[in-house]
Amino acid sequence: MLLVLHGTGGDENDLIPLARAVAPGAALLSLRGRVSENGMPRFFRRLAEGVFDEPDLRRQAADMAAFLRQAAQVYAFSPDSLYALGYSNGANIASAVMLLHPGVIHGALLFRSMVPLELDSLPDLSGTPVWMSSGRRDPIVPLQNAERLAQMFRQAGVQVRHLWQPGGHELAPGEIQAAADWWKENR
Questions:
Q1: 12 φ, ψ (degrees, to nearest 5)
Q2: Does the structure show a pLDDT above 90 at 80?
Q3: Strand pairing class (83-87; 2-5)
Q4: Within 13 Å and on the Cβ side, how many CA atoms surround 143?
Q5: Is 5 exposed, middle or buried (0-12, 13-18, 19+ CB in 10 A)?
Q6: Residue 86: CATH number of its domain
Q7: Residue 50: pLDDT band by 50, 70, 90 thresholds?
Q8: Across-strand partners of 37?
Q9: Three-state secondary structure call for residue 139
Q10: Could you please report the per-residue DSSP string of 39-102?
């Protein structure tokens, strides 16, 4: 099962072609963010570009974790089979759910993610596979922030593969194939 999570202003349909390219044949569960920012769907509020409303992020992550636990029962899939594929805001909520609610998401493909929140301690996510892709010239996600998220995951025991693209916040064709290759190796 692949949980598909769009970026700011997207919807549950935006990343379906990407998900099909990365994980052909996977069952998809695609969600629309419940928060509106100037009419654009998001998964949690932000105070400014790159500055997240942490109390709202924690609430939205808890709600998503509860929904995913219930969805596993309703749709009869094993929680151990749930991976997330997220872009930008969607990648950030996936990261937050993994860090705040270990075991709900078993692994992830994170496009243009950044540190979602500060934690006093990291959970034990030993053996969890995560693939990240970041842009070296991303105007939204600074290099240091993306690398700090990868390091947080590593310190939590995550098996991280972090791919750097020469471009910015947009997706590059080569990274889609790299994500698909990672999916084949880790599923």
A1: -65, -10
A2: no
A3: parallel
A4: 7
A5: buried
A6: 3.40.50.1820
A7: confident
A8: 40
A9: coil
A10: TEEESS-EEETTEE-HHHHHHHHHHHHHHHHHHHHHTT--GGG-EEEEETHHHHHHHHHHHHST
Q: Enumerate the β-bridge partners of residue 30.
A: 4
Chain position carrying tokens 């892709």 = 133
Pick the closest to residue 89 from 69, 70, 112, 71 (CA basis): 112
State how many domains the chain has: 1
Q: Which of 128, 165, 174, 130 is nearest to 149 (CA)?
A: 130
Q: 51-55: list long-range contacts, CB under 8 Å, 24+ apart.
A: 52/92, 52/116, 52/117, 54/117, 54/118
Average pLDDT of the chain, as a whole number:
96
CB 111 within 8 A of CB 175: yes
* Catalytic center residues: 88, 138, 169
Q: What is the pLDDT of residues 109-130, one digit of tens each?
A: 999 999 999 999 999 999 999 9
What amino acid occupies position 7? G
Q: Give the pairing type, strands 35-37 and 40-42.
A: antiparallel
Give me the count of residues in the chain: 187
Q: What is the mean pLDDT of residues 36-63?
A: 96
Greatest Cα pair distance, the chain, in angstroms, is: 42
Q: Which domain holds residue 95?
A: 2-186
